[in-house]
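Curious: explain these tokens?
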Amino acid sequence: MLEGSILKQLVDGRAEPDTTPLNYGVYYKNTLVALCHALEDCILTSGSAPLVITAFQRGKWYLQEADRYSAIAEQAEQIVIMASPEAGFHDHPTSQRENVALVDLANDDPVAEEWHLMILSPDYTAMVLCQELSVEDYGKSGVPEQDLERKFYGFWTFDSALVSQTIELAIAHVGHYDPTLQAQLADHLTRLKQQNPALHSDEPATVSHTVSQVVHYLQNSRNDLKGNLAFSLVEDLEQNLVSNELQAFLRMAQLVDLSDPVNPLAASEVVSLLEMMGQLLDLPAWQLQRLRLAGMLHRIAPAPDLATLSNDGPSCPLIPEVQALRLMPRLRAVAAIIAHQGERWDGSGYPAGLAGDAVPLESRMLSLVAEFQHRVAEARHGQDTDVDNMAVLGEVLGTCQAEAGEQWDPKLVEILGLMVMGLQQGMSLPTIPTKITLGSGLLNPDVADQTSVFPSSSELLPR
């Protein structure tokens, strides 16, 4: 990372590991264009007037985006564009708008090598924070001839607290060039925090639409690659786009955990428990893989209001967050697992009122493991550090055993009992944070071929 860059300042000023992991990755410019267009266009439907700060590297990149930024300026309260000055940069009509400020970066300013998009309002928050790889970083292959194949290092996020922290750094950097603008931006940020000190724009329900938009834009970019002979790295570009489609969902799921002070490790612990249960059931690798994804993403779909469900027989109401998952063909099986996690063994659950082995096995596993983990977290919350964790595990297991045959598959409860016994005897339960930027590695191309395979418990469990 370049000394003095906004990305480097943010990293140096963070108190990790007590803060949110940044999940760095390498992004092709082709991916960043699609990602930023999706995040920018959501400003138009966010219903608020955000503060937007960008870094475009060179003025010519701004000129390519200036027309669309005219529409964004209609909605945003203030836009700040940092870039190295070039001919025509200041002459475009968008640059003359009252709420659009240009900051000409010096040639030796490290921010001139960065690509930033920061959007902050109480209702909508998003950020891309990257810097281009150096010539040395590209190695023997050298800098690509095709502009959209250039690479950048950094991350993107919906975390409002992180965006706010980064905007403070950006405002300070603007102050080196325009102290008056710095003061105006600082006042605007203060007003935003006074309106809503918590800046709850990172609520999963708020970003659900944005995630769908991001996936659509990335998929359209993938379609544009097909048959395009101008690119020499088509396969790598497509893989980068697919990775970011999954990253969008994983980042939304991460926000759910971050916003839950009682159970911030839910996803990682549920994944570990699912893997343990899946191994005891001797599930095949492809099934374990989609169980991992279901565990990571299971909290993005809130339980529907039972009062709204039909009493006229089995039905399957559409849950927006689950429908968003189905935008990715290789996540459709995972979406089905998550959609049916509210089913009960006795048939009184939701969304379709399935009973017994008619409930997909993976959904039965997920619902039991997720509820067990949730109850353990609640029992531990607020307790002294010397709380008897082994006793808590036994007590929560007892509540699940009492519900076997009604809410839970009795045979899966037996397996859970074996798992708890192992944990009580010292077996560790790793809670390794998900490496979001390796999202494409979590997708198995063969999983899509297995979407109709839902074995019953009688086929897999010991009698």
Notes: Strands lie at 25-28, 51-58, 78-84, 100-104, 114-120, 125-132, 151-157. The CA atoms of residues 44 and 71 lie 8 Å apart.
